[in-house]
Amino acid sequence: MHIPDGILPAAVCAAGYATTGAATWVSLRKINQQADPRAGIPKASLLTSAFFVASWIHVPVPPTSAHLVLNGLLGATLGYYAFPAILIGLFFQAVMFQHGGLTTLGVNATMMGVPALLSYYIFRLRGLVDQENRVWTAVFGFVAGAVGLGVAALIAMVLLITTIPAHLDVEAERASIYALTTAHVPLMLIEGLFTALVVLFLQRVKPELLEQG
Amino acid sequence: MNLGLEAFAHLDSPFHRWAPKHKLVGLTVLIFAFSFVRDLHLLPAMLAVTFILYAVSRLPLSFLLARLRYPGFFLLALALLLPFLSGQTVILRLGPLALRQEGCLDLLLIVVKFVSILTLSLVLFGSAPFLSTIKAMQGLGLPSILADMTLLSYRYLYEVGDDLHKMETAMGLRGFRARRPSRRTLGVLAALAGSLLVRSYERSERIYKAMVLRGFGAGVRPAPHSRERSQAHVHDYLALGGALFVAAGFLAAQILL
Amino acid sequence: MNQTPFQAPALLVSGLSFSYPDQPDVLRGVNLRVQPGERVGFVGPNGAGKTTLFLVVCGVLKPDAGDITLYGEPLVHGGFRPEIGMVFQNSDDQLFCPSVRDDVAFGPQNLGLSPGEVDARVEEALSITGALDLVERPPHHLSGGEKRMVSIAGALAMHPRLMIYDEPSANLDIRSRRRLIRFLQNATHGFSGEKATLLVASHDLELILELCDRVVLMDEGQIVVNGDPRELMSDVALMEAHGLERPHSLVPHAEPHHA
Q1: Mean pLDDT by 10 residues, chain A (213 residues)
Q2: What local confidence, expressed as pLDDT, does residue B1 receive?
Q3: Mutate: best of C110, C113, C164, C167, partner B, most B CBs <10 A
Q4: Long-range contacts made by residues B46-51, C-beta under 8 angstroms, separation at least 24?
Q5: What is the number of CB-based contacts under 8 A between chain A and chain B?
Q6: Are A87 and B86 an interchain contact pair (Cβ–Cβ within 8 Å)?
Q7: Cα(C259)–Cα(C256) distance, rounded to whole angstroms?
């Protein structure tokens, strides 16, 4: 769902950079409010690399395989560092693999980064119930992962359909949005399930990774 | 991995010699000017500028073609949809499908813009080591937390990539094949991803200790990177001016047309 | 050389204890004194506490109890003491900058030196370690031996008086290992004119024999014994009691098989 160059109008690209700039500013402020912001940098950086690499894992989705976006998982584990992490990850993808455009970097970062922050808050809600309980962890992990992908996909669909073909009639537009959204439902389920499984793994092996501020 | 991107970073061309900060600003502004274009009459000019610049950069054509392949798939999907769905003016009927003029023109606009922007970004990032481009961004005001994170992530991308490769090889050697999204397969892949995260996390703790040992965060302000002092010459500014001029030309033309 | 009758120790450790949150008693009441110019080897099984001791002595980890004095000044946890430098077991953890030049420059920059001075330190450190031709390379393109020498350069660029090496010959091929040993033997990088003080932890007992004036045997968080390398490491009962063996060169040969 990385939007390439050339498709979106310049105004939308500029707006994307504006929203990404704002979200980055907010994230950096939250980060700087922590006790030792520089201490979090190695961790966030290494996890940025790890997520970038993890998204290469082929998950079989018949008839082919898919690469997961994992923005929900990023939000759950990195908290506010998730936004810069996604921005940097997308930058690397755009420059090194031409996956996603440079003019659309702002749009893509907002599209995937803001839901990641949403997923962070969703995952934190498990503190209301029982943090240690594996079932609750799995449930909140699932929701965080599914919502992370779902909201991102929704934003992408709406953007593409409303901006590219200026000549599509309203009916066709609505039909396309519905069609593409339904296509994403199985992907949401898989991301949710995968996120839940990873979160359970982390809870067993390295619970500190799930304690985010 | 990204050795592909830096494969030609050590050639010699005017772009390779252009000072990083000026090149970054000049080409970025030009790229955005291109994204502003909506009028089809400007497309030939855009293509001409793009290919002239690419030729000047001495980067091989094969490099560009290889890089166009992957994102080309998205465009292929658009090519199959837009001309048949968008617009009213039918120019050709193929059985039940109707090829529409507006859709074709929309597609043309998108393809030309896409190719031009991608080509320019290859010139920008392929004509110098990736590291120097990141440092140029830092010199232009990228917040230090972002700069530090980018450099550190970039540094360890290989290590983490190697980790993944080794683990996948080991899994394959013990017979694992990811065929269906069964509970077990997803569980194994989740453990793979989880292991990657845990190992990276633990590595980051060791790195942090190594950084502290050499004074990181000790409250002493580090001196600015010595090499990044402006060594810009007149021709760097001239080239920048040229790029801005061309960009302004496209913007003006688009507004007036 | 002017030897004052009492020379302040480079390192003085007394009653040092440390536990990790999930691992108690990693260090138990460790006492150690290292004189300037000494080369002290540390041997012992994995988990003996050697690396932990080094990290505590550098100020990176905070001890639960005990005092550390470095060149007469008490060491404060979290304080930055450039007189002490450490080279880790895994060079990848230490070379975190995208180019060799940046990495070696990291320490001097944190010392607040001017760009010109930083450049000079980088050149000097890389020359000493024979790695000057690697200066613009990214660390992940280097071989194990090259990474090791660059890590050493990164520490030396801060002009330390005391250098700690944690498993320096681990994963090195024979040639790189020999180069390392030669480098350490000739280490007179006491930049203030004094001979370098070294602490070296290693499973490579032959390296310890070739290099060190004194050996400390650690096990289960304590210093078991402290003495002359040849004497200590020839003691079969002692070595085997602590999960070690005598280095080959100290094994008396019933059937001589050396040339």
Answers
A1: 85 94 93 80 91 87 82 91 93 88 94 95 87 87 93 88 68 76 86 93 87 60
A2: 41
A3: C110
A4: B46/B112, B46/B113, B46/B116, B46/B250, B47/B112, B47/B115, B47/B116, B49/B116, B49/B246, B50/B115, B50/B116, B50/B119, B50/B120, B51/B119
A5: 229
A6: no
A7: 8
Residue count of chain A: 213
Q: What residues of chain C lie within 8 A of the CB of B226, using their CB?
A: 105, 115-116, 118-119
Is A53 in contact with B160 (Cβ distance < 8 A)? Answer: yes
Fold of A10-210: Arp2/3 complex 21 kDa subunit ARPC3 (1.10.1760)
Enumerate helices (H) and strands (E) in chain C, giving the number of each.
Answer: 9, 10
Q: Which of A8, A97, A209 sits opposite B198 (nearest CB)?
A: A209
Segment 46-105 of chain B within 8 Å of chain A by CB: 67-68, 70-71, 74-75, 78, 82, 85-88, 100, 102-103
pLDDT band at C192 (very low <50, low <70, confident <90, very high): low
**Is the CB of B178 less than 8 angstroms away from the CB of A65?**
yes
CB B125 within 8 A of CB B10: no
The Cα C216–Cα C27 span in angstroms is 14
pLDDT at B217 over 60: yes
Q: Where are the domains of chain A?
A: 10-210
Tokens for C13, please give them.
């450790």
